[in-house]
Amino acid sequence: MKAARTDAIRKDWDTYFMDIAYMVSTRSRCPRRHVGAVLVQGKKLLGTAYNGAPMGAPDCLEAGCMITEEAEWRNVDGQEQMIKKQRCIRTIHAEQNLLLFTDRADREGSIVYVTDQPCWTCANMLANSGVTEIVYDRVYLKDSDKVHDLMEQKGIRFRRLDPYSPPPQTEMEIMP
Ligand SMILES: [Zn+2]
Ligand SMILES: [Zn+2]
Predict the structure, then answer these.
(1) What is the pLDDT of residues 80-127, one digit of tens each?
(2) Closest-lying ligand to the alpha carbon of 122?
(3) Cα distance between residue 172 and residue 31, in whole Å
(4) H or E element that contains 76
């Protein structure tokens, strides 16, 4: 039956917008991480963004990643251990670029779909942006607890899209 077959391949809205976020992420030129984010209000796509250097400034492929090392405390088998982590700080995060390139009015009551669970800084900014729901795919453990607490305090719906698989060839391997 033709109608049934069309229904079976028709994407639900969550998958549809997350797929777009992954497509957007392929524009990123930071070899460490490709992140895409989209702004959706009432099923309308109102903005797209990915992580990248400021416009006109050299990007990670031209000038190399700008690496900083950060110490992070983590509980490993009941013991607090300090783990050193490298991060690229050349890029503006996808979520922050999304806020820079969208209007406040477009964000009120809107949903952000983002390929990766937001870091603390992005979550903090999103919490003040008018957005009322954040949907992500890949988990980012570093700031997870405090980000979840903040979202709860702000009454922002915060959820992982699961089950979900990104469209083919949109996912890069993430460096540790
Ligand atoms: Zn980089
Ligand atoms: Zn971030």
Answers:
(1) 888 888 999 999 999 999 999 999 999 999 999 999 999 999 999 999
(2) 2
(3) 9
(4) strand 67-76
Residue 95 falls in the annotated catalytic set: yes
Tell me if 22 sits within 8 A of 166, measured CB to CB.
yes
Sheet holding 133-138, edge to edge: 44-50, 36-41, 111-116, 133-138, 157-160
Q: Output the six-digit token pair for 157.
A: 């719906």
> How many angstroms does the Cα of residue 71 sit away from the middle of ligand 1?
19
Higher pLDDT, 150 or 9: 150
Residues with CB under 5 A from ligand 2 (ion): 93, 119, 122
Confidence category of residue 73, pLDDT binned at 50, 70, 90: confident
Residues 58-86, mean pLDDT to the nearest whole number: 90
Cα 108 to Cα 18, 20, 60, 100, 131: the distances in Å are 20, 21, 33, 15, 6
Residue tagged active-site, from 80, 95, 133, 152: 95
pLDDT digit string, tens, across residues 134-148: 999 999 988 899 999
Q: How many CA atoms lie within 13 A of 133 on its CB side?
A: 14
Cβ neighbours of residue 80 closer than 8 Å, sequence gap 6 or more:
73, 74
Q: What pTM, to 2 d.p., does this model score?
A: 0.90
> How many C-beta atoms surround the C-beta of residue 148 within 10 A?
13
